[in-house]
Amino acid sequence: MAASAPVADVGSLFSLQGKVAIVTGGTGGLGTAMTMALASGGADIVSIELPDDKGAQNLRDAVKQTGRKLSQYQCDVRTPKELRACYQKIWADGVKADILLNCAGVQRRAEAADFTDEDIDLVLDVNIKATLVSCQEFAKPLLAEGRPGKIINIASIISFIGGKNITPYAASKGGVLQVTKAFSNEWAEKGIQCNCINPGYFRTPMTTQYSEDPKYKDFNDYILSRTPAKRWGEPSDLQGAVIFLASKASDYVSGTSIVVDGGFLGM
After folding, report:
1. Rounded to two decimals, what is the model's pTM?
2. Catalytic pick from 73, 169, 201, 252?
3. Catalytic residue at 169?
4. Among candidates 166, 231, 239, which has minimal Cα distance to 201?
5. Which domains does the chain have, with CATH numbers?
């Protein structure tokens, strides 16, 4: 007779006590909610932010409520040299990180033929190049020291469906999905799990107009009709997926993505 499975210690399985998480884009609408999930789970936070980031104080206030430590570093993630130098400063300050959450992202809209070089460069630099570089720099000391780690990238349902009027964004989020797989192929055997979360349509300060402005009623109606949950996502809807991918609970999950979209892709 086969031995029964051990009883799961659920508290320990999902706990982040004693962990340190580096977060890019943690001052944004979705980023703050996901960062709060990590802090509430017990992780201290190292935030990489833009200089004079308007959301920096809000993030400080939010993390303070959890009783966790917050360290804030400033750089423009779209510049690889600056981002790499920021990581070197973090390591020089004695930080030993266990988790990386790449939330930094931007969006631009236009018809496919009308995107400017400047908009294409901005979206690709922030969404895919910065994600790739951040993963590299986070992993280097872990690989050198033989330590395990968790990488969580933020892709999108647009990684799968393309969308309209967001060509550079679609390219960048498809790229996030693929670099996540590629990093996992090399690092999973080293104990570094690399996964991504693919959010659907979420209500944030940047998307409020699409869900509330009568001018975009047709678009809002389309989103609600296509989403079985019949609502836009709220930032807190991402917190469970973040805790899972950052914790011991996902130790055998790597190179994949969790779609959080209210059922949108299932329609």
Report:
1. 0.95
2. 169
3. yes
4. 231
5. 16-204+233-266 (3.40.50.720)
